[in-house]
Amino acid sequence: MQSAASDSEDDFHDLDDEAFKDAEDFDGLTDWSPSTPCSEMSELSIRSDASHARRRQRQSRPAVADTTPRSTRSSIRPDTPMASMESPSAPAATAAVDPAGGHEEEEAKAPEAAAEFEEEPTDAKESEAVQAMTSEEKILEAAARGVILVKDLETGELVPLEEVDAADTFDSLRDEIAKQQAEGNATMVTERPRKNSFVPCDVECQRVQVMKKQQQELSQLYLQQELLSHTGAVWTMQFSRDGTFLGTAGDDMVVRVWIVAGQCNTTSTSCAVFEEHPYREYKGHKKEVLNLAWSAGNFLLSSSMDKTVRLWHVLRAEQCLATFRHTGSVTAIEFHPRDERYFMSASYQEMRLRLFNIPEKRCVEWAPTNVGVTAACFSEDGKTVVAGCSNGMCKFYSTEGLRFVNEIDAVAGKKKRTEDKKKVTGLQWSSGHLLVTTNDARIRLFDMRDFSLVCKYSGFRNFDIPLYAMLSELGEYILCGSEDKRVYVWNTVNAYGGGWFGGARKDRNESYESYEAHDAMVTATCWAPFAVRGLVAESGPEPMQGQLILSADYDGMIKVFEVRGPPKKV
User: Fold this and answer.
1) Which 8-state DSSP code applies to residue 80?
2) pTM, whole model, 2 decimals?
3) How far is residue 272's CA from residue 262's CA, in Å, rounded to a whole number?
4) d(CA 39, CA 29)
5) Residue among 511, 430, 443, 453 nearest 482 (CA)
6) What letter would DSSP give residue 195?
7) H/E/C letters for each residue in 317-338?
8) pLDDT at position 458, please?
9) Helix, strand, coil: what percent of the chain each, to 5?
10) Which class for 310: exposed (0-12), middle (13-18), buried (19 or more C-beta within 10 A)?
11) CA–CA separation, 133 and 139 (whole Å)
12) CB 373 within 8 A of CB 393
């Protein structure tokens, strides 16, 4: 361990003092306790209460699913951070998108389509045909024409917005929709072909592959929603601790924050898990964003290959509260679980762990790792930091003073592996166990009481991208993406009883379920917390029933899946 005073502070952090001075939310950090929120966060509490009220109101209204097909995206793929830490590529080209989430060209065409609809002659036979159309058919026809339909909640009739109030421009149409929704007199059904939508209830159930298991737990797996705001790979997805927000980031250098909506269709089991457009889009990073971390007060940290860590807050629309500079790509960040005035960062090129004090705006401790750090995390009590390294080692440090404690070889075994097949790509400390993901296509669970290997999980592909596995909230399941476009789920305890000898090794788990989730490599996955599941899914008696699984791919697509059925024998 070495003190940060021995280095020039300018090399490691550079905060915007004026921006930080305006961040009154952080002034009370010195008085925070793990169980008591900062008094300055009352505005956020009011904001969250209002959000939940809006969700309840939406759930009481009939909503109609958007049936817009997935838009075309660029097939050009940049190099991955795993392949080249020093040479990140530019994000893939995409069409211009406005802040509301639509294409500029589509906006220009919308008024023309509406005008064309008004001029179209209608005889008696066509009028009868229109009256005989179902609501879904009207919606599909209106979407094809670019017409906006408004639903009268008293009569249930769907009519073009022009008949409610003539509007000349696209912006005024949007204003009228917002006004009608605020007054509770009408519900927007469709505006124009959408990028982000929840999926109709008549979609097919996902086909699940069951390997060496006696029952299928991903039963009746359905696609709930698709989010398409990102361009290029999505490397990280993290829910806020209260489950209100989802942070996503990746190749396009933009940190996006989504609000959990829980807007359900009363005529089916389909639900829009998230609001259609991102609540916040934070720009400032110059290269790919590799990791995100939330605090209990909804502060958000983002780390990037541009050698910086940036601090944001969901109440601040665009303002970066602070910038912490490093001399290498920052591959891992995490708030201290018990004292959120501090956060930990790790760098690949620097080969160091750092501990920052946010109110004091400085690095207070650092320790050399002597090898590139590719993942890092705190223990649950915050007393220990573990660094996953590019040579497969996991090094443990005491948080106080960052003193070295112990190390384990996560990829130890009889088979010899090359240096590029030993990287630790993900770490999670949960319930006294450490989950380690490595790019030899293995996941390992260690008992932190004696640093022993509990079980090794295999079946997925992970050789070229920084994948990370994740334990469910109660620890029964492990979730991970894969380079073969699939999502994999393992039971933490291998209960498979088949095989030639009537049983299976408890320290090896090749029993899993998987499904093809994307058209490109799955780069990030996560479980939705219980707070989110309670809004949009009906939980059953079985642990997996009602689970929401999020996955993102190399092309920027984010998908939300729901497990609706109980386990069934195979």
Assistant:
1) P
2) 0.68
3) 6
4) 9
5) 443
6) S
7) CCCCCEEEECCCCEEEEEECCC
8) 94
9) 20, 35, 45
10) buried
11) 10
12) no
The 8-class DSSP code of residue 33 comes to B
Q: Spell out the residues 6+ positions from residue 196 whose beta carbon is closer than 8 angstroms to its own.
A: 101, 225, 226, 227, 228, 229, 274, 276, 277
3-state secondary structure of 87: coil
88-123 pLDDT, tens digit per residue, is 333 333 333 343 344 344 333 333 333 333 334 444
| Class of residue 566 by CB neighbours under 10 A (exposed 0-12, middle 13-18, buried 19+) | middle
The four Cα atoms 198, 204, 210, 215 give a dihedral, to 10 degrees, of 90
Rounded to whole angstroms, the Cα distance separating 308 from 289 reads 10
Buried b (16+ CB within 10 A) or exposed e, 373-386: bbbbbbbeebebbb
* Residue 222 structure tokens: 């359905």
Domain boundaries, the chain: 104-193, 198-569
Please give the radius of gyration of the chain, using alpha carbons only, rounded to the nearest integer.
25
Amino acid at 527: W
Q: What are phi and psi of 375, to 5 degrees?
A: -160, 155
Classified as helix, coil or strand, 162 is helix
Which residue, among 537, 532, 549, 535, has the nearest Cα to 242 in the 3D structure?
532
Residue range 287-339, pLDDT digits in tens: 999 999 999 999 999 999 999 999 999 988 878 999 999 999 999 999 999 99
As a whole number of angstroms, the distance between CA 481 and CA 421 comes to: 17
The 3-state DSSP class for residue 471 equals strand
Residue 118 identity (one-letter amino acid):
E
Separation between Cα atoms, residue 498 and residue 504, nearest integer Å: 7
* Both structure tokens of 416: 């010899």
Name the E strands within 298-402. Answer: 299-304, 308-313, 322-325, 330-335, 342-347, 352-357, 362-368, 373-378, 384-389, 393-398
Whether the CB-CB separation of 434 and 407 falls below 8 Å is answered with: no
Class of domain 198-569: mainly beta
pLDDT recorded at residue 391: 92
Q: What is the dihedral of CA 479, 483, 486, 492, to 10 degrees?
A: -20
Cβ–Cβ < 8 Å for 375, 468? yes
91: nearest Cα among 101, 106, 104, 81: 81
Which string of DSSP letters, residue by residue, matches 535-564?
HH----SSSSTT-EEEEEETTS-EEEEEE-
8 Å CB contact between 312 and 323? no
Please state whether 146 falls in left (phi above 0), alpha (psi between -120 and 50) or beta: left
